[in-house]
Amino acid sequence: MRAGWNRGLIELRQSFTNGAELFSHFLWPALMLVALFFLRHRDFGSTGLLLGALALPSILGMNAAMGMVSMSQQLTADREDGTLLRAKAVPDGVRGYVVGKVVSVAGGLIVDLAILLIPGLILVDGIALGSAHWFTLVWVLLLGLVATLPIGAILGSVFTSARAQGLIQLPMLGLIAISGIFYPISALPGWLAWIGQLTPVYWMGLGMRSALLPPTAVPVEVGESWRHLETAGVLTLWAVVGLLMAPVVLRRMARRESGSKVAERRERALLGG
After folding, report:
1. I want to staple 68 with a disulfide (CB 3.0 to 4.6 A). Which of 12, 152, 203, 217 is the partner?
2. Positive or negative CA dihedral for 179, 182, 185, 187?
3. How many Cβ atoms from other residues are within 10 Å of residue 125's Cβ?
4. Mapping DSSP to helix (H, G, I), strand (E, B) and coil, where does residue 269 land?
5. What are phi and psi of 50, to 5 degrees?
6. Domain spans of the chain?
7. What's the rounded Cα separation, in Å, for the pair 204 and 239?
8. DSSP string spanning 77-143?
9. Which sign, positive or negative, has the C-alpha torsion 152, 155, 156, 157?
10. What are φ and ψ of residue 209, in 5° steps?
């Protein structure tokens, strides 16, 4: 655990000192801030609410949920280049590797959210701030990370190459589109709204909205309620499923790793296959 923690801190520090990775940390928040800039004065129907105020906390929830994509990408890349095989050769190395990835991915996500949230609070009107709201923000974020990062580890163990892992982007974009991020889910057709509510993306967005929006915003939500109990319940369910499945899947994946398979993947990547 201690070695994994130190590994995660080293990777996190490197991600903010490497030019390309540092650029990626700022690129996505910058794009989202541009979208918020154009939404900041748009009204949502006749509710008197600003669409920008509704979108900011939803985007925060979406970015936090996208941590599972980042987790799967890093695990797939490390599996392909032999990093995971080297970790397997050390006693408890796979456990330390996973702890390190959780620390680095979660730490990077929290910094990315701060990069988006601080300018967003200045840019967008209609955001509520207070001790109760910050408490809700923290528990939704932490529970959401526990719910989504193990899923990312499972997804990363499924794909054998970074190219194949890229296929996950399309269904993720589809889930985001129906998860009430840029437009309230109550405005979607009923069957799409039900599918959206099965995903952690929707519940993290809802939890963030409940933390940052005033009570006057709740009528646009399903059931005209922030549904804190349901948010905690669904995210906890995803967390339990992920935490139970991830160790089993990762152990099976690590057992199948060998030097010949790493060499084969490298050769296939060089050949463009």
Report:
1. 152
2. negative
3. 11
4. helix
5. -90, 135
6. 2-259
7. 13
8. HHHHHTHHHHHHTSTTHHHHHHHHHHHHHHHHHHHHHHHHHHHHHHH-S----SHHHHHHHHHHHHH
9. positive
10. -65, -40
pLDDT band per the 50, 70, 90 thresholds, residue 109 = very high
Note the pLDDT tens digit of each residue in 200-244: 989 998 999 899 888 888 888 888 889 999 999 999 999 999 888
What the block records as the tokens of 265 is 């993947």
The answer to whether 103 and 5 have CB atoms below 8 angstroms apart is yes
Token pair belonging to 2: 């201690």
Give the 3-state secondary structure of residue 43: strand
Buried-exposed string 67-99: b where 16+ CB fall within 10 A, e elsewhere? bbbbbbbbbbebbbebebbebbeeeebbbbbbb
Distance, CA of 222 to CA of 225 (rounded, Å): 7
How many Cβ atoms from other residues are within 10 Å of residue 223's Cβ?
9
The answer to whether residue 192 scores a pLDDT higher than 80 is yes
